[in-house]
UniProtKB/TrEMBL annotation:
PANTHER family to which the protein is assigned, alphabetical: SERINE/THREONINE PROTEIN KINASE, SERINE_THREONINE-PROTEIN KINASE PINK1, MITOCHONDRIAL
Family per record: Belongs to the protein kinase superfamily.
Cofactors named for this entry: Mg(2+)
Native organism: Gasterosteus aculeatus aculeatus (three-spined stickleback)
Signal sequence coordinates: none
Protein name listed in UniProt: Serine/threonine-protein kinase PINK1, mitochondrial
Record-annotated Protein kinase domain positions: 143-484
Reaction equations catalysed: L-seryl-[protein] + ATP = O-phospho-L-seryl-[protein] + ADP + H(+); L-threonyl-[protein] + ATP = O-phospho-L-threonyl-[protein] + ADP + H(+)
Classification via Pfam families: Pkinase
Membrane-crossing segments per the record: none
Alphabetical UniProt keywords: ATP-binding, Autophagy, Cytoplasm, Kinase, Magnesium, Membrane, Metal-binding, Mitochondrion, Mitochondrion inner membrane, Mitochondrion outer membrane, Nucleotide-binding, Phosphoprotein, Serine/threonine-protein kinase, Transferase, Transit peptide, Transmembrane, Transmembrane helix
UniProt GO BP: autophagy of mitochondrion; negative regulation of apoptotic process; positive regulation of mitochondrial fission; response to stress
Subcellular location(s) of the protein: Cytoplasm, Cytosol; Mitochondrion inner membrane; Mitochondrion outer membrane
Amino acid sequence: MSVKHAISRGLELGRSALQLGLLKSGGRFAAKLRADRLRVAPSSRAVQPQAFLPSRYRYYRTSLKGLAARLQSAGFGRRLGGGSPRNRAAFWAFGLGVGLIEQQLDDDRRSAATCDEIQAVFRKKKIQSSFKPCTSGYKLQDYIIGNQIGKGSNAAVYEAAAQLAPQKCSPPQLGEEEGETAPTLRTFPMAIKMMWNIGAGSSSEAIFKAMSQELVPAGPLALKREEEEITLDGYFGVLPKRVSAHPNVIRVSRAFTADVPLLPGAQEEYPDVLPARLNPAGLGNNRTLFLVMKNYPCTLRQYLKVSTPGHRQGSLMVLQLLEGVDHLCRQGVAHRDLKSDNVLLEFDSDGCPRLVITDFGCCLAQGDSDLRLPFNSTYVDKGGNASLMAPEVATAVPGRGVVIDYSKADAWAVGAISYEIFGQPNPFYRAVGLQSESFQEKQLPPLPSGVPADVQLVIRFLLRRNPSKRPSARVAANMLHLSLWGRKALVNQDSVGMRKLADWLLCQSAVVLLKGCGGPSGNKVEAELQRSFLSNLDLEDLRTAAGFLLYGRAQRQTCILSA
Ligand SMILES: Nc1ncnc2c1ncn2[C@@H]1O[C@H](COP(=O)(O)OP(=O)(O)OP(=O)(O)O)[C@@H](O)[C@H]1O
């Protein structure tokens, strides 16, 4: 369906739904939609628009009003008004200018209020996962463990299912609406990650402390109450925070410590990390941390080895990574080890890949949510994955007062991974050989010509060396949202008119809400992305995204004309 069609259909549906009173959760929102379209005053229950006016504009407005008043009281107007036609025109133009700015401010205020109301509506809607963890599952004996499904440098991952105790712990099911599920995933819907414990000690406290970053994506019921208390009491201030659920971030449903068992392939594949009890030459501790998650069919890297997504699908995949990164940033977490092996993948009912960021072992998650890390010695860990380290991280030299700002580092890595998504070698891996600390932006290889121009633009911007010229994950995601679904809102604009954008947002919200009423389709990747966008709306971020797009398009136009 074209955007135009979608919008007009959305409006049409919105109108009938409003009449029928179908938009339950959007009661107030519906009134707002109507009020805004008909330009009537919003309901008295609505939050005072003044509260939404950004401080910058409040300042301009006050200054302009003050200036006008001062000019008037000084008799400037009378003198000008009574003077030459040229002066009269100048004064008239000044008044018009103030009027126009007032109108612009009014538009902005209305748009900000619209954003806020839309955000409130979509924030209320909880993420519904089709993965239902069992109600117990805090012991290794609660699980049947199958084959190994993966291995990294810190852990081995096995497929798993709940031991049968149907009334208490029925095996988690994938929702019927999900795409075709492979038989092995039906038998083993869970994955258990067994960390390798060398040197952390064997007490639960010590293990939780040493491997605390792995708990960042753990859900609220992941730890048994006593262990939750250990993590809070024993290491308050040391243990990192936990992030809330998001469709593009892995959810750890259980985390517990247990004695290391002898699992399939252990003696052959990782004998050195086994405890002496299982291998006399092994260096591992007797106990370790286990993390229970949903079992995903493959990693992004595995998927890309066998298929190249189409351009639209590829754009949706990049967008999902940006949404996941933005969610982490907002909660004060930098992943620091983003690569295609650390992204898991499944399919929605349309066959569209859903991406999930996993493996938080290297993340930065400081108690105060600060994404800046003091870098005063070489002992400070900069994070994993040197090839995909953002330039500002890779080039940092330790010293007094040096701080590494990670707030846009993951976004840079998404830019690099995007090449893989569009069927190209990652420019920062050996085959191409660029180094993140020394590359020049003009050395970046071109993306395939079929990749939409706006998407190419986003990737270029993400890979900017200078983080202050690089969009944040949120702004880059907004650029893709605008490009995928809001093209009309930006057409023929040389400046970013908010009214058009606000109208588009209202249409988009109506469409998404109505789609959500339609049942299973609500779990599709596109719908999730749109909900994520609407629940994180911020006027300034949106304006910046539109600005980046328009700037990039203008640059492109200039290049074409001068070629
Ligand atoms: N939930 C899961 N479902 C399916 N496969 C998984 C899951 N979690 C991990 N894997 C597989 O196991 C591999 C290793 O997992 P993971 O990256 O978490 O281990 P790690 O030792 O922490 O890795 P690294 O070497 O990056 O530190 C992954 O690359 C993937 O192939």
